């Protein structure tokens, strides 16, 4: 039996792998279409710091570099955090079909990242063009596929799947 910390660590690892996949797809899209990186993470960091009455240290380029790094780190935290949420749900007994896992792994990060940006007035998804939606959803689909696949692989086979494999191998001799 897997201890409760196993699914949490597996979820974090799976979320980190999924975040890498999301970044690869996003940067690949930038290469193919020649589009610029989104400035929404940095704008979100600025607006959030303003709302919380926090000052990001530094002046000029040093402060801008910190803001850029904080924007990137929020994405990494969201992706890894979603994996941890999947691990928590598993530790609590949630055993959905893979399709439900994929849906949660797509929608969760979309809401976790676009929600604060929308609330802070950084973006308004209602005004996005179809290309904007594709540029946002396709990387999140890659995130979900990798995160769920890695998570389930790290967990190993379910007891019922393991029983099914054992039953199908009865009476066979291996070379």
Describe this structure in words.
This protein has 175 residues and is mostly helical. The protein is 75% helix and 0% strand. The protein contains 6 helices and no strands. The protein has helices at 5-33, 40-51, 60-91, 98-119, 130-155, 159-169. Helix 1 packs antiparallel against helix 5 (130-155). It is globular. The model is unreliable at 162-169 (pLDDT under 50).
Q: What portion of the residues fall into strands of 2 or more residues?
A: under 5%
Given the C-alpha coordinates, what overall shape results? globular
N→C terminal distance: 30 Å
User: Spans of 5+ residues with little confidence (pLDDT < 50)?
Assistant: 162-169
Radius of gyration: 20 Å
The ordered H/E elements are: HHHHHH
Secondary structure elements and their pairing?
Layout: H1 5-33, H2 40-51, H3 60-91, H4 98-119, H5 130-155, H6 159-169
Quick tags:
mainly alpha, 6 helices, single chain, 175 residues
Concise synopsis of the structure shown:
This protein is mainly alpha-helical and about 180 residues long. It has helices at about 5-35, 40-50, 60-90, 100-120, 130-155, 160-170. The protein starts with a helix and ends in a 6-residue tail after the last helix.
